[in-house]
């Protein structure tokens, strides 16, 4: 019996029973360490039988190796297959992991668990600075290994996720949900040579699915950073609707147990949308439409109960051109407040806003109200689906949700976007040509998929990203006992949604009772509204003053940090400067909520701070002075970006005050003299998300392509440090012979 294996835990020699300490078996300890981030995998391992053909072998490394019996590639004869080196499995693991560049990847995707020695080596290097995702479809093998080898030590010290199904894209998405910034710091595939033949086609299937998930995560991160300015501009410009108008809290479960149809603008919509005009449908089925199809439905005499909108761009106001209050009577527009204010200004009917944390912070406890915290959507169709679930509807059917180029088209006939294109039409530039141009512009991101009828269809990277989120949502709802119907009758097939025709769905829904009356949106008129508007304006002025103070104090701290960097060799001076930085920091952190609002504005700076933090944490062997210098450089960049974010947010708050006072709303960013937006997005960050591949023979980079705009009990709990004001972290103590005093030891 030895205690020098991975994680310093005890391993039994071959042929002996597992150790039992304090009543816990080796399997118990391993699964307890694995459970916080792998509840599904732990359940599968607990119920799986051990693999009967595992043969354990003693090795000179002092840890066991093993073989299994498997079929040859032709499936004709049995062969013995090693799960690790039969002589030096630990040395083999070190060699395999040497080419893996931990500094360039916060997410490591390991193809095959084997005996786990290579995963343990990666865990030793990564620790809590990243996520390790292991694909291992052989659950019985996992049971055998976890019964034999005590890995609980290193399992507790890392963020490990085990995935077993090569086709479960929802589980892949959950593995990184809430930690998309880790993907943005780099993703690397590590292939375990001993598992390559055993995994076979399952490995290729998993890698293809996980690549889609990575692209979706990258879309989330890049969109967040690129769109931060536009998002907060729209939020602050919509503060009148948010603070003075109704939310959706009173709509929760207003149609509980009733059927709903979510209508989108995919090209297959023309095939079945006419069925919604049947007289009994609106009385028994909640109809929720994306704003892109509102006019199409109205032209057919179909009046949805709700329309949803969340688009950033002012062009979306075109979807409401020419509509009057009478046209949309009985139709409520539900928006995420980040929608462009041109939309809320253009819609002539009732408007409700979903809850938003940023605006609640701006308003404070005295003015914020329960607005209804619906899930945030990547697209207006996601928002429509989430609204249906918020209403308590079940089942929910989707139509026009192609997520692919059905019949070579992008939009359904008569879609509002065709009206936008009307000025470009002529004999040589038809709607069909514009549709094709819309597809051809994304030719480098086109990919083959399978439609709902089993036929090949093209989609693109953007729509594949949307599909990942939908499939994750459908899976979560299915686990909750809810039913999703894909009644699109075309487009890409969707996992965890049941295919059916709209006619079949409506026939069943028509047999149900009539819908209950929907709550009428409360209106706030007269003196009460004017008094609340004044209170909101005063609150904005107060927050604006504090935001300006955050910027001023950040620049003061930057000057001190620059002095600290320039005189880094004089540690006594550095100590005194640290005290000054700390006093400024304390002033800033007391400016609530202004400090937190500026941090939300500073998404690009937050990403860079996260990247710098991780780089410092990886440099565990750097000498204390070197680590401190890196921390000073990180904090200098951080407070500089905070100052810039405070300036930008102050300008947005000024514009919001002007709009509240009756001025024109800002629907686009100001244009700089060179023609670029005055506050351009962090375009360089798109290049930060790279999917790399590493094998025993080395690592090679592979870009995962461009992307556009797009959370779990089984997901990892790792999160990078938040971009906060803080002094450089205390370095390790120097030997007693050192004469230079270190920071924090004054």
Describe the protein in words.
By secondary structure, the protein is of the alpha/beta class. 43% of the residues lie in helices and 12% in strands. It contains 27 helices and 21 strands. The strands form five sheets. The chain has an eight-stranded parallel sheet with strand order 14-13-12-11-10-15-18-19. Strands 8-7-6-9-20-21 form a six-stranded mixed sheet, sandwiched between helices. Strands 3-4-5 form a three-stranded antiparallel sheet, with no helix packed on it. Helix 2 packs across helix 5, helix 7 crosses helix 21 and helix 23 runs antiparallel to helix 24. The longest helix has 41 residues. The radius of gyration is 29 Å and the shape is globular.
Give the SSE layout:
Layout: E1 20-21, E2 24-25, H1 26-34, H2 39-47, E3 55-57, E4 65-71, E5 78-82, H3 89-97, E6 107-111, H4 117-126, E7 131-135, H5 139-148, H6 152-155, E8 160-163, H7 169-176, H8 180-184, E9 187-191, H9 193-199, H10 201-226, H11 228-237, H12 239-244, E10 259-263, H13 269-272, H14 281-284, E11 285-290, H15 294-299, E12 306-309, E13 332-335, H16 341-346, E14 350-353, H17 357-367, H18 380-390, E15 396-399, H19 416-420, H20 431-440, E16 446-450, E17 456-460, H21 461-479, E18 484-486, E19 498-499, H22 502-510, H23 526-566, H24 571-589, H25 594-601, H26 603-618, H27 624-660, E20 691-695, E21 698-700
Parallel strand pairs: 6-7, 6-9, 7-8, 9-20, 10-11, 10-15, 11-12, 12-13, 13-14, 15-18, 18-19
Antiparallel strand pairs: 1-2, 3-4, 4-5, 16-17, 20-21
Helix pairs in contact: 1-5, 2-5, 3-4, 7-10, 7-21, 10-21, 11-27, 17-23, 23-24, 23-25, 23-27, 25-27, 26-27
């Amino acid at each position: 019996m030895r205690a020098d294996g991975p994680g310093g835990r005890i391993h039994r020699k071959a042929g002996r029973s597992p150790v039992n300490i304090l009543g816990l078996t080796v399997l118990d300890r391993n699964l307890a360490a694995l459970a916080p981030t792998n509840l599904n995998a732990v359940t599968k391992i607990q119920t799986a039988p051990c693999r009967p053909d595992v043969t354990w072998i003693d090795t000179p490394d002092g840890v066991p190796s093993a073989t299994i019996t498997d079929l040859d590639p032709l499936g004709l004869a049995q062969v013995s297959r090693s799960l690790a080196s039969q002589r030096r499995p630990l040395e083999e693991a070190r060699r395999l992991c040497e080419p893996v560049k931990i500094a360039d990847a916060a997410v490591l995707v390991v193809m095959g668990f084997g005996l786990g020695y290579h995963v343990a080596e990666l865990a030793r290097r990564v620790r809590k600075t990243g996520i390790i995702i292991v694909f291992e479809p052989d659950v019985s093998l996992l049971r055998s290994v976890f019964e034999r080898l005590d890995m609980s030590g290193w399992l507790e010290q890392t963020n490990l996720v085990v995935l077993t199904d090569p086709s479960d894209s929802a589980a892949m998405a959950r593995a990184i949900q809430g930690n998309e910034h880790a993907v943005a710091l780099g993703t690397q595939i590590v292939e375990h040579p001993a598992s390559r033949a055993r995994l076979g086609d399952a490995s290729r299937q998993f890698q293809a699915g996980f690549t889609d998930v990575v692209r979706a995560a990258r879309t989330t991160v890049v969109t967040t950073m690129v769109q931060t300015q536009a998002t907060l501009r729209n939020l602050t410009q919509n503060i009148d609707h948010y603070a003075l108008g109704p939310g959706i809290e009173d709509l929760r479960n207003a149609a509980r147990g009733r059927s709903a149809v979510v209508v989108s603008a995919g090209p297959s919509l023309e095939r079945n949308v006419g069925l919604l005009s049947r007289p009994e449908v609106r009385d028994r089925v909640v109809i929720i439409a994306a704003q892109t199809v509102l006019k199409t439905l109205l032209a057919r005499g179909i009046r949805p109960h709700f329309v949803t909108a969340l688009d950033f761009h002012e062009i979306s106001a075109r979807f409401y051109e020419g509509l009057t209050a009478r046209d949309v009577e009985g139709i409520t527009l539900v928006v995420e407040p980040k929608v462009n204010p041109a939309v809320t200004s253009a819609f002539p009917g009732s408007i409700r806003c979903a809850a938003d944390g940023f605006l609640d912070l701006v308003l404070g406890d005295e003015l914020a109200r329960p607005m209804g915290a619906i899930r945030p959507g990547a697209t207006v169709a996601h928002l429509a689906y989430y609204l249906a679930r918020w209403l308590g509807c079940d089942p929910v059917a989707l139509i026009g949700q192609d997520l692919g180029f059905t019949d070579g088209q992008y939009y359904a006939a008569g879609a509002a976007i065709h009206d936008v294109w009307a000025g470009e039409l002529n004999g040589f530039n038809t709607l069909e040509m514009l549709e094709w141009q819309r597809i051809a512009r994304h030719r480098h991101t086109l990919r083959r998929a399978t439609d709902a009828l089993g036929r090949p269809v093209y989609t693109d990277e953007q729509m594949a990203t949307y599909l990942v989120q939908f499939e994750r949502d459908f899976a979560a709802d299915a686990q909750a006992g809810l039913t999703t119907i894909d009644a699109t009758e075309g487009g890409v097939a969707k996992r965890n949604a049941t295919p059916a025709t709209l006619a079949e769905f409506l026939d069943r829904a028509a047999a149900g009772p009539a819908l209950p009356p929907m709550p009428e949106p409360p209106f706030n008129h007269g003196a009460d509204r004017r008094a609340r508007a004044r209170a909101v304006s005063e609150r904005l002025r107060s927050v604006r003053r504090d935001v300006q103070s955050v910027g001023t104090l950040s620049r003061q701290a930057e000057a001190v940090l620059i002095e600290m960097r320039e005189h880094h060799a004089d540690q006594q001076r550095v100590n005194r400067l640290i005290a000054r930085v700390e006093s400024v920091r304390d002033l800033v952190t007391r400016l609530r909520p202004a400090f937190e609002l500026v941090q939300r504005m500073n998404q690009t700076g937050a990403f860079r701070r996260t990247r710098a933090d991780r780089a410092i944490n990886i440099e565990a062997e750097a000498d204390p002075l070197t680590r401190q210098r890196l921390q000073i450089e990180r904090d200098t960049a951080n407070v500089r970006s905070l100052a810039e974010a405070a300036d930008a947010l102050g300008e947005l708050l000024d514009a919001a005050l002007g709009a509240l006072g009756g001025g024109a709303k800002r629907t686009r960013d100001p244009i700089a003299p060179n023609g670029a937006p005055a506050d351009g997005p962090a375009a360089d960050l798109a290049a930060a998300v790279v999917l790399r591949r590493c094998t025993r023979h080395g690592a090679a980079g592979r870009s995962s392509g461009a992307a556009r705009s797009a959370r779990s009990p089984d997901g990892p709990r790792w999160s990078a440090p938040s971009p906060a004001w803080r002094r450089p972290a205390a370095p390790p103590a120097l030997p007693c012979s050192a004469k230079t005093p270190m920071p924090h030891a004054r």
